[in-house]
Design brief:
InterPro entries: Split_barrel_FMN-bd. This is Deazaflavin-dependent oxidoreductase (Nitroreductase family). It comes from Nocardia fusca. The protein has a 7-stranded antiparallel sheet. It is α+β, with helices and mostly antiparallel strands. 30% of the residues are buried. It has 5 helices and 7 strands. It has one domain: Roll (Pnp Oxidase, Chain A), CATH 2.30.110.
Length: 168
């Protein structure tokens, strides 16, 4: 890819190869995390960074419980992820139920897909949760700042940020 091609990374060379593929063990991990998030005492501890999204399939009507890492940002919650099939079921204006260490809450999801929004919001997520940043292929420079070339690469490879706004 040439430096002046439209797909060139304007922030330079990434330090990672991009977001990690979930792998075969992800299903088992998700079941364990979903169970931990349902346990009353433990869910408050685990739920400080993890939540369960209760997503309903647009076509099938089937309910899916998806454990995700989130970052609290003001009144909103931010979730950085690759564009997974379940993300297509999120529609702005259709409330989404999530559980994070307590009672279910309602949020209005906004899926950010534009490069500028994804870069800005993923930087907030990466600063808050380095483990999540690593899963999403985002490294850090010597000063501890998220690498913009890595974030841009994550976006190029289908990374999105879901912003959850509380429903009042």
């Amino acid at each position: 890819m040439s430096e002046d091609s439209p797909t060139a990374n304007p922030y330079g060379t990434p330090t990672t190869s991009g977001p990690r593929h979930p792998g075969r063990a992800q299903g088992v991990t998700n079941r364990v995390v979903r169970t931990l998030l349902r346990l009353p005492g433990l869910s408050r501890v685990v739920g400080k960074r993890l939540a369960t999204l209760h997503v309903v399939g647009r076509k099938s009507g089937r309910a899916y419980d998806i454990p995700v890492a989130y970052t609290a940002h003001g009144q909103t919650l931010l979730i950085g992820t690759a564009r997974r099939p379940w993300v297509t079921n999120l529609t702005t204006g259709t409330p989404l139920t999530i559980t994070r260490g307590g009672q279910p809450e309602q949020f209005d999801p906004v899926v950010h897909t534009e490069a500028e929004d994804v870069l800005r919001l993923f930087e907030i997520i990466a600063r808050d949760n380095r483990t999540n940043a690593g899963y999403n292929g985002i490294g850090f420079d010597a000063a501890g700042n998220p690498n913009k070339a890595d974030i841009y690469q994550t976006w190029q490879q289908g990374g999105v940020v879901i912003e959850l706004r509380p429903v009042r």
